[in-house]
C-alpha cells in the first residue's frame, strides 16, 4: 500500500453512471496527490447470493487516508453496507457516505437537486399543473423528491401527498401505477416525473399497453440521462446525471474532512435534454456531442468484438490444471481496455493470499504469498505510476475464491469488461477447485464463514507436487497407495508423493472415514459411490471419479460393514 491512498467502496456498478462517478473521484484524488483503490462486486448473476460481498471482509480500512462509501450502489444490500460502515467507524478513518444526505456535511450541495429542472420544464414549457412524482420509498428522504417539491412550491402549485407515488426503485412500481391510471384508480395527471430513466421507460411501455398515449394523454420525464434514453424509437426527456462531477464533489468533501482544506474544481451545470416523451421531440445534439457519442460507441463495439472473438470462455472452461491459468490470462489481458497491471489471487487464510498471476511477472510456474490487505504482492509494482486500482471478487455460485486487481496509470475504468473477465476466471478456478487441482495453503478457522478456497476439514496433510510441499484437505483425497517403498496420495488431479507410512495414516485418519482395503491401499470411504462384485466375487469400490479400486478378500467383510452392507 502506498502513502496517501483513498478507498472507494461500491456495491455493484450498473452501467455508466457508477463508472463515471468513480472516474470523477479518481480524477480529483489524483490531482490532490492520492492513489485510489476501488472495491466493488460484479453482480452479473441474477441469483440472490451475496458471496461476492466477501470481498469487503478483506479490506483493512486503517491502511487508507480516507474512505468513500457509495451507499446507493448497495440499493439491494443495505445490511451489507451497514456492516461496512460500522467497520470503517471502528478504524477511526475519515470517511463520507453517499446516498443519505444526513451523512454528509450540511454545506455540501445536494447534487441531485437538478431533478427540479425537469419539473420546471413541464410547468413552464408545457403548462402542466397536476404533476405526479413516481418512485422512491415511503418515508425515505430523497434529494430528487425534494427537487420536485421545491419546483412545485416555487411555481405556487399545490402538491398533496397523493402526488408522490411510492413504488420503490423498481419497474414493477411503474407497471402498477400504469394499471391504476388505466382503471381509473388514480386521476390522470398532466405529467409524471420518474426518479430514474429505467422507471420512465417501463411506465411508457405499460401506458401504451393499457391504451394511454404518451405524450398526448400524459407527459413522462426521467432522470439520469442513460444512453438508452436517447434511442431512435422513442426518446425520453431527461437530465443527464453528471456523475463525474458528483464523484469530484464527494472527493472534495472527503478531502475537507481529512485536511480541513477546500479542493478547487470546476462547477458543472445540468440542463434538460428534451425528447419525445414530453412532446418536444428530439433536439439535434451538437457536433461535438455527436463525435463523443460515436467515439464511445465505436470504442465499446470494438472491445465487444474483441471479447466475442477471443475464445477465452472455451479456453478457460476447458482448463486442465492450475499451471494453465496464468498463460491463458496473460494472453487475454487485452480484453480489459487501457489496463496496465492485472493480477489474480486466491485467499488461503486470515490475511493470507496467494497470487496465481501477475502481468508484470515472467511467469515460470511459481506463485507468491502475501498479506491480502496489501492488495498486491510486495515489489509487484515496477514503477510508481499506478494511481488507480480496481479490486473485484473471484467468486462463483456460493464459493468465494479470492480477488482480481486491475491497475491503471491514469483515471481510467472499464468495469463492464473487467467484470466479464473476472467472471470467466472465476468459473475456471471453480472448475479447478472441483477437480481438486487448486492446491491451497494453511486453513484458518476464523475465515470459515468466508467460504474461501480453503475447505474446512479436521485433517489436512502436506503433499509433494512439482518439488513443493503443499497442504491439502483430506476431504479431497480418494485413497493412499504404497508402491516401491513410497506412499502416494491420489486426488482427482493425479497422484502425489507423501512422506509418511500407510500404518501411520490409518491410525491418524480412521475417524475421518479412511480404512485399509488391501495391503497397499488406504481408502477414503466417503468418496465411494458404489460397489461392484466381479465374477470371481472380488469387490470393487467405485469412486466419485468413476474409477474402481480392488478390495482384497482379507478386508472384504470389514469393508462391507463399513459401507452398511452387513
Structure write-up:
- The chain is of the alpha/beta class.
- The protein has helices at 16-31, 78-91, 116-126, 143-154, 171-182, 197-209, 243-259, 287-309, 312-317, 324-330, 415-434, 502-509, 553-562, and strands spanning 5-12, 35-41, 66-70, 94-98, 131-134, 164-165, 191-194, 219-221, 341-349, 352-358, 368-371, 388-396, 399-408, 460-465, 468-473, 479-483, 486-491, 494-498, 514-516, 521-524, 528-533, 539-543, 548-551.
- It has a nine-stranded mixed β-sheet with strand order 4-3-1-2-12-13-9-10-11, with helices on both faces. A five-stranded antiparallel β-sheet has the order 18-17-16-20-19, covered by helices on one side. The chain has a four-stranded parallel β-sheet with strand order 6-5-7-8, sandwiched between helices.
- α3 runs parallel beside α4.
- The longest helix is centred in the middle third of the chain and has 23 residues, at 287-309.
- The model is unreliable at 101-111 and 439-458 (pLDDT under 50).
Rg value? 29 Å
Helix content: 25-40%
* Sheet of most strands: 9 strands, mixed
Strand content: 15-25%
Average pLDDT, all residues: 80
Number of discrete helical segments: 13
Low-pLDDT runs of 5+ residues are 101-111, 439-458
User: Which quaternary structure do these chains form?
Assistant: single chain
The geometry reads as elongated
Based on helices, strands and strand pairing, what is the structural class?
alpha/beta
End-to-end CA span: 61 Å
Beta-strand segment tally = 23
The neighbouring-strand order within the major sheet is 4-3-1-2-12-13-9-10-11
